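User: Fold this; tokens only.

Assistant: Input:
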Amino acid sequence: MANKSFLFKWEPLWLENRSGTRHTLPENVQSWTYEPGSLTQRLRDYYGDAIGVKVLLQQWSTPFLSERRLLKLRENRYSLIREVLLHADGKPLILARTIIPAKTIKVAKSNLAHLGSRPLGEVIFSYPKLERIEMDVTLIDQPTWAPSAIAKANIDQPVWGRRTVYAIAHRQMLVSEFFLPGVLDVF
């Protein structure tokens, strides 16, 4: 499993977002989980140009089982897996894991395969026909995180997250975002 993720020792346990789920989350977590726009833009509105992206992992690999099921991918099918840390002048704010199948990259004219240190949100929210298909939520305890992620993001408490299936021209991708205390304390 180590090669599938810089962030996790094993796959997090996700809960389907049902009606009423929102009210079980702390208020500051609700605000981020149910943000309808780009999280990157929301961070830029607050921090301006101080927002940076550190790429922790970017490789073609097989996603976790629940990710493959959500995207309806065959077991041996590789996708582009990208994990990043969004920060403001080095202060960790959001960890993100994105699964982009090859067919989605083709439809997006390869823009998604060559992001470098550009935030994914800046690219996908520029597509006029971007659709949100579904969303899950999670609360991840310390043992699930890989030591590398704990060190990089200063994780010392459970972390809330959401994962969203987006579609560009009916081709899906999965974006998981994890809200670090630094982002929850500010908003």
